[in-house]
Fold these 4 entries.
Entry 1:
Amino acid sequence: MKKMIIYFLENQMMRKSFYASFVYAHNEMEDRRPSWHRLCSLKSVILNEPWVILGDFNVLGFQNEKVGGDGGDMKSMQELEDCIQTVDVENLPFKGVHTHGVMKEIEVLEYYVN
């Protein structure tokens, strides 16, 4: 597991609370598995409390999230889906602009502007 941070957030005035996990998973499938196991083990601690999991999972959640190149690694996608099912959260599809390569273009533009 590269990094995972877990917070319990609470608004005492509104009496609302939830857990938030931030994940930065490895690039390689075998190295990501401990992250999925850790998330699954947290389910027994979090139980039925609201829980949001955000981060860079380094695997596609949906096939249509892939831009260019080959399709996603189906085995890796299935392992992520199994984890999502186990922890009983919902995988929301990507919305917005795909930024792969955009930051390089922005850096180049900044270089020329300066």
Entry 2:
Amino acid sequence: MAEPPSNSIEAIPVAPLGFIATDIHFPRPPGDPFNEQTWPFPLIREQARGSTESDIVTGTKYDDAFIERFVEAGKKLADRGCIGIITSCGFLAMAQNETIGILTYDDARLGPLHLSQLGIDTTKRVIPIRGAPANGHLRRLITEGGPYIHHDLEDELVGVAKRLTVECEESGSEIAGLLLECTQMPPFAEAIQKATGVPVYDVYTMGMWFYSGLATRRPQRWGDKLVQ
């Protein structure tokens, strides 16, 4: 006799988020990014040794030795299998200089004027932009009303994204992430990420972030009170 199907569902492994901790020691209760209970996924940590408060909180450019401490910690986290890396101080934005690529509906019409409204000066920072083919599936879907054939749209957008990342790599400006401008692109974000190997952001991820600030709730896993 065959056994009845099990009701248990095998847990899908979740890759951990990597956290570079500063060399500053103080209570860090749930809600602080250092604390594992803050997050709904696994967290692993490495310390950037010698990164004191006075080193981090500064109005001047960080020196190479300081940056190297974070690079070393980041490499250790990558070796341990983290999916991405964050740190714990907004002042460290001084050390960020990644290039973000944009996948858009029409790259002939999306350009410097749009980016300038977001505070991005394209005369000082190159933002690679690539659009869906003018006679392709996505453009016909919008302008002619269809047809909606998922695998054709996916193949088209994955192809554009791959060409963009390859072009950037060949020019020496490897991109750190992709922004999908068109609101019809989120259903293909997973396939694009798998094909390119870079983080992908779109109107869905933006909406989730936006809503989380509009309806802020203290997660139950943080507990009712802060640790004294």
Entry 3:
Amino acid sequence: MEEDLDHILRRCPPTPSLWSSLVKTEGWTEFLSLPMKDWLFANIVSPIKFVSDTLYWLLLFPYILWNIWKRRNDKVFGGESERRESVYVQSVHMVEMGVLRGTSVHLANNNSQQDVGRDLVWCRPPIGWCKLNTDGSVDKTTNFALCGGVI
């Protein structure tokens, strides 16, 4: 079986059972059948087809993708993942920490530590491909980690 992005994010066990527990029954067929680029777009722009709580979905969906991707890479490149939490539980935790910590971002910017910046250049993907750019960080004082991505 080809390990393409569609396989990893939608079809590789245990992701189908995760998605089926979250997606509305009436949207399930479309959720699985959309081409990858359209699927990503639909879940970001008009998730109402698939879920009832669209605001929460807009926060949760990228974290689920990140955790699925991370676990697959951990398994392929580093042996089995050591994470005991499910992808869903870990993703919900990441959303909650991001929402809770987001209210105090302005305080973190006023501390004595300096922001470290670097110039990055974005490159357009080849025609027919979509690109997922991700980043993450860890607060060493609290061990909270956050990640995000842009499609």
Entry 4:
Amino acid sequence: MERQAVVPRPAAGGFPWTLLAALAFLAFNSAMAVYRSNGDQATIVFVATSYVDLVLLSCCLWLHDRAAMGSAWRDRLKASVWTLTTLLTFSFGYIVMGTAGLTLPVALLVWIIAAATGIGAFSAFFDRRGTCRVNEPLDETMLPPV
């Protein structure tokens, strides 16, 4: 007899107070970063796009958690989450490369790491081989209880 992995679903309804608090904290930090940028346009654009990206990412994750399993809406949200995450990774790599004054080998390493992150996230999100990503419970305890 095969075991079926049970994934608990979050309770429907309710207001996401933690999400609201996190977004308020993000808004405050973004405003402070723009204020301290001393009018540097590249920094302001990076902070603004990162803020919009993180707000959209948080909303997509919140909606993804509440979407029905196996629905087309959930798959579209998953694609949006991957796109937003990859955009944030590459924009961070671009800023690191520009502000740190990296040599060519180190700059290539930064881009390779960003690309590997995007490819790894893509394979983790869109694996259609039917493998279950939920860890099966062990039949025996590995360590004695304390």
